[in-house]
Amino acid sequence: MLQKPEFPLRIYYDGACIVCATEVERYGRHDHAGRLVLVDISDPAFDPAPLGITLDALMYQMHVIDRTGRVYRNVEAFWAIWQAFPASTLLGFLGKLVTLPGLQRVARFCYRIFARYRKYLPRRRGRCATGSCRIGRDGPP
Question: What is the pTM of this model?
Answer without folding.
Answer: 0.84
